[in-house]
Write a structure and sequence with these properties.
With 424 residues, this protein is an alpha/beta fold. Helices cover 46% and strands 17% of the residues. The protein is built from 17 helices and 14 strands.
């Protein structure tokens, strides 16, 4: 465990450059995308057999499979999902935006907010299963007014998808679920196949192959939410924080992925030392110890600063996906935070609260993109259309201004489109 005394280094020097998730696999992903575009379901079934060991051939989850999934789960777990649905819905309903119109009689200018017709959500199913990801992607789409929400997720060799994932899909209004994962699933959503309809927007996290496929289809075949990199947590903690809490929270992200980053910045040397010890103790008992160990060894650092102001400066430079403010007065620091996906305030707000139940979205910008992008939300599933209406009088009133612009840009046809109307 590396404990480093801060001496003015930049965040890049301290933490290193983030690994480019899409590097090294682009050629393979391009081939998969072209195969799916050309061969449709045949290609999807081939990759399901090759990568997942599934040879059943059936791609769409049946109503009976949904019923079976629900029946296999306890009432208490269903109630947990329902509480999460309620909280996520309550939060995201506040994000709804409305169109507007400026009407001066002879001049009307307005804006319409229109949901995309079909959203495609990707839910990982490799090293773990994520019903929470279903909720975080589907609920904002539903609230936005998307009519059709289709979901893709890897299938087990026996043709099964985790019951928790299917239950979550039913509870939040997913229209259809398909047993397809990886880059091939993104290609299917982007271009459509015989079974899977083409989506207008694709959201959801995935591995390097999924991220690369999203990058390649974005803006060409469809829209995407973001290119998600490995998970990150950065904790700013003062001397009053509990080292055992901090260690547990660092591991909550380290267990996601060998490439995940878990970082602590503190103004307390004693907390730094205690956290390092607690990390080792907790790591030894962790179910996903191998994954978390690799993450901690390669991507975990503890930085000791002179004060919390330095910690905030470093955090803003790093722009973490998850930021915990484990300090006595977290709201005082919150006002200074300019770049973070989601912020968790105080000693008793672990990041896991945001993953599952608080209601804020857990699909967040990674790899420093919190400097310029936002968490997944309702606005990701809508588009804006503007409209303009001018009367003959309104056009005459502004004609000189339009002509002046057109002349300055050398666009005489623009000028003509106005003057031809004035002459009549």
């Amino acid at each position: 465990m590396k404990i480093i005394k801060y001496d003015g280094q930049s965040a890049n020097r301290l933490f290193g450059e983030r690994e480019e998730l899409t590097s090294g696999v682009e050629s393979l992903v391009k081939n998969i995308i072209e195969d799916v575009k050309l061969n449709g379901d045949v290609a999807l079934k081939k990759y399901a057999a090759q990568f997942d060991g599934y040879t059943g051939g059936q791609l769409k989850v049946t109503p009976a499979e949904f019923d079976e999934a629900f029946a296999s789960l306890s009432k208490s777990y269903i109630a947990t999902l329902e509480r999460s649905v309620e909280n996520i819905s309550r939060f995201h309903k506040r994000q709804l935006t409305e169109g507007f119109e400026i009407n001066d009689g002879d001049r009307v200018v307005g804006q319409k907010v229109i949901p995309v017709a079909r959203a495609g959500i990707y839910v990982p199913g490799g090293t773990a299963s994520y019903p929470s990801t279903v909720l975080m992607n589907a609920i904002p789409a539903k609230i936005a007014g998307v009519r059709e929400i289709i979901m893709v997720t890897p299938v087990r060799a026996d043709g099964k998808i985790r019951a928790e994932v299917l239950a979550a899909a039913r509870l939040c209004g997913v229209t259809a679920v398909y047993k397809v994962g990886g880059a091939q699933a993104i290609a299917a959503l982007a271009y459509g196949t015989e079974s899977i309809p083409k989506a207008d927007k694709i959201t959801g996290p995935g591995n390097a192959y999924v991220a690369t496929a999203k990058k390649l289809v974005a803006g060409v075949a469809c829209g995407i939410d973001m290119i998600a990199g490995p998970s990150e947590i950065l904790i700013i903690a003062d001397g009053g924080a509990d080292a055992d809490y901090v260690a547990a929270d660092l591991l909550s992200q380290a267990e996601h992925d060998r490439l995940a980053s878990a970082l602590l910045i503190t103004d307390s040397q004693s907390l730094a030392l205690d956290t390092a010890k607690k990390l080792e103790q907790r790591l030894a008992k962790l179910a996903r110890r191998d994954i978390a160990s690799a993450s901690i060894e390669n991507n975990c650092k503890i930085i000791v600063t002179d004060n919390l102001e330095q910690a905030v400066k470093l955090s803003n430079e790093f722009a973490p996906e998850h930021l915990e403010l484990c300090v006595k007065k977290p709201f005082d620091l919150l006002n200074e935070i300019t770049s973070a996906g989601s912020v968790f305030l105080g000693y008793d707000t672990p990041e896991a609260v945001g993953d599952y139940i608080a209601g804020a979205n857990h699909t967040l910008p990674t790899s420093g993109s919190a400097r310029f992008s936002s968490p997944l939300g309702v606005n990701d599933f809508v588009k804006i259309t503007q409209y303009v209406r001018y009367s003959a009088k309104a056009l005459k009133d502004c004609a000189d201004d339009i002509v002046a612009f057109a002349n300055s840009e050398g666009l005489t046809a623009h000028e003509d489109s106005v003057t031809v109307r004035l002459k009549k």
